[in-house]
């Protein structure tokens, strides 16, 4: 590893506190809302175990302390336990973000021995019919539930993640009930972000305003009920950007606290940044420290100097940093535009149009484009 | 508050000194609380074994000049429990 003395940028930018390690794009499921890049099938040069270990050492030395292992499905990597053990020994708080497929009791134990701190399992729906239609596997749901129980029994804190969209959001009561029964510590009810495969399917995923309001109200009723029962399970409800008045503070700001390393070693300020018309550096060619502090890509939207009007002079720019760059690009074609989700954006009409288009889209789950290698190859060629 | 009460960190949560940040942090699933010096000093002694009385005695020994230390510690524990950082048996 090269030792760098602090550069000018280093004195003004903070350290990356969060490292997301996307170990692989391989995955047995094919969720139509997957945030992986459309051309994932073209990227098959995964980092080796040794390369990942080097990334972990570099990130920890820079001050990163929270880390997630995700993908794709990280359990596909046979060296997962080895990487977890290394990360834990370096002092990371280690989160495994998984579909639950590829997990069994033996592996749960092996991960426990490696020092894994937390397992987050994603559920697609409350029942196996809907979950199967979404993920392209009829057996996956039962397997996920069994694994959620096993994770709990092994003594891990458990966060369940449910991606919401128009096809499952009306099941919210049954979804929460299921999470209570599984003994979750926290549940993320996250309306899907419309990037990657989700953007492709967006008019078939976005719920209606009425669906959204009903789901939020149901969540609030559950919060009161749980509090009354002395159950401290936390319910986090994430509204879809398309129905918000202001954009989210994406990743706490570009290059502020978060970095993702993709399967082939490309380093991104957020996991969907690959959609942007920019070149991102890779750990195969550059030290992580110089990527974070000195690269053009990480400095491109750092701070405020890059901001367009109306953000430039807006009082809220320290709160949301002008919103999401990926969303700005996907919708307006300009990655430096104000996020159109913001009601103050001159492009806000695009969001209104998308909502109207969504209301006209009557496709069933089966008619959405599944995230799989066959469909992906179409995008690799394009 | 009962002085015999024994607190432990919430299961799966971890307290850690971060050299890069020069402070204690409390780590939990996909999140982190950045602690000030006194919160770090108190939480360091919360081990699921010591009761509140011993905890205060230990801190009093380390910081003999701190006024109203017992009161501050008790208030902090109530607050930390309310936030879900610690639990008692
Ligand atoms: S969202 Fe679905 S398809 Fe995409 S990586 Fe996760 S489990 Fe696999
Ligand atoms: S104008 Fe820009 S800074 Fe102001 S609220 Fe909208 S996105 Fe945020």
UniProtKB/TrEMBL annotation, chain A:
Domain of life, per lineage: Bacteria
Xref: CDD domains: Radical_SAM, SPASM_PqqE
InterPro entries referenced in this protein's UniProt entry, alphabetically: 4Fe4S-binding_SPASM_dom, Aldolase_TIM, Elp3/MiaA/NifB-like_rSAM, MoaA_NifB_PqqE_Fe-S-bd_CS, PQQ_synth_PqqE_bac, PqqE-like, Radical_SAM_PqqE_MftC-like, rSAM
Requisite cofactors: [4Fe-4S] cluster
Pathway(s) of this molecule: Cofactor biosynthesis; pyrroloquinoline quinone biosynthesis
Cited PROSITE patterns: MOAA_NIFB_PQQE (PS01305), RADICAL_SAM (PS51918)
Entry note: cofactor: Binds 1 [4Fe-4S] cluster. The cluster is coordinated with 3 cysteines and an exchangeable S-adenosyl-L-methionine.
Presence of keyword Nucleotide-binding: no
Record family assignment: Belongs to the radical SAM superfamily. PqqE family.
Protein name: PqqA peptide cyclase
Lineage of producing organism: Bacteria, Pseudomonadati, Pseudomonadota, Gammaproteobacteria, Oceanospirillales
UniProtKB/TrEMBL annotation, chain B:
Pathway: Cofactor biosynthesis; pyrroloquinoline quinone biosynthesis
Keyword Repressor: no
Entry keyword annotation includes Membrane: no
InterPro entries per the UniProt record, alphabetical: PQQD, PqqD_bac, PqqD_sf
Family: Belongs to the PqqD family.
NCBIfam families: PQQ_PqqD, PRK02079.1
Protein name: PqqA binding protein
Chain's gene name: pqqD
């Amino acid at each position: 590893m090269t030792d760098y003395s602090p550069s000018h940028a280093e004195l003004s930018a903070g350290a990356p506190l969060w490292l997301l390690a996307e170990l692989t794009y391989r995955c047995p499921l094919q969720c139509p809302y997957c945030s992986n890049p459309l051309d994932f099938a073209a990227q098959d040069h995964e980092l080796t175990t040794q390369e990942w270990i080097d990334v972990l050492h570099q990130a920890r030395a820079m001050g990163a302390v929270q880390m997630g292992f995700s993908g794709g499905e990280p359990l596909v990597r046979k060296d997962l336990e080895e990487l977890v053990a290394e990360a834990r020994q370096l002092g990371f708080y280690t989160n495994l973000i998984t579909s639950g497929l590829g997990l069994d009791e033996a592996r749960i134990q092996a991960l426990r021995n490696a020092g894994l701190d937390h397992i987050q399992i994603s559920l697609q729906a409350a029942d196996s019919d809907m979950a199967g239609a979404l993920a392209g596997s009829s057996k996956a749901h039962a397997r996920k539930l069994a694994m959620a129980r096993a994770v709990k029994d092994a003594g891990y804190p458990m966060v369940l993640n449910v991606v919401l969209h128009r096809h499952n959001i009306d099941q919210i009561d049954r979804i929460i009930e299921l999470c209570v029964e599984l003994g979750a510590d926290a549940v993320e009810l996250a309306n899907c972000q419309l990037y990657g495969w989700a953007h492709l399917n967006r008019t078939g995923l976005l719920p209606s305003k009425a669906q959204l309001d009903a789901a939020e109200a149901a969540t609030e009723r559950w919060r009161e009920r749980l509090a009354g029962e002395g159950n401290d399970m936390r319910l986090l409800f994430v509204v879809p950007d398309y129905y918000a008045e202001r954009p989210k503070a994406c990743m706490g700001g570009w290059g502020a606290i978060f970095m993702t390393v993709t399967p082939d070693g490309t380093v991104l300020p957020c996991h969907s940044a690959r959609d942007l018309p920019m070149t991102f550096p890779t750990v195969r060619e550059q030290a992580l420290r110089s990527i974070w502090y000195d690269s053009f890509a990480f400095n491109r939207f750092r701070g405020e100097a890059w901001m367009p009007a109306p953000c430039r002079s807006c009082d809220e720019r320290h709160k949301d940093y002008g919103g999401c760059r990926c969303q700005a690009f996907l919708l307006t074609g300009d990655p430096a535009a104000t996020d159109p989700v913001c009601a103050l954006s001159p492009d806000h009409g695009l969001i209104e149009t998308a909502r109207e288009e969504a209301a006209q889209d009557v496709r069933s789950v089966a008619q959405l484009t599944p995230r799989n290698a066959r469909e992906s190859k179409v995008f690799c060629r394009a | 508050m009962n002085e015999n009460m024994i607190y432990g960190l919430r299961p799966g949560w971890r307290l850690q000194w971060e050299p890069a940040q020069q402070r204690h942090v409390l780590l939990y699933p996909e999140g982190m609380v950045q602690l000030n010096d006194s919160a770090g000093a108190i939480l360091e002694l919360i081990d699921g074994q010591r009761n509140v009385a011993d905890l205060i005695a230990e801190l009093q020994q380390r910081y003999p000049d701190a006024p109203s230390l017992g009161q501050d510690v008790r208030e902090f524990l109530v607050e930390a429990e309310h936030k879900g950082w610690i639990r008692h048996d």
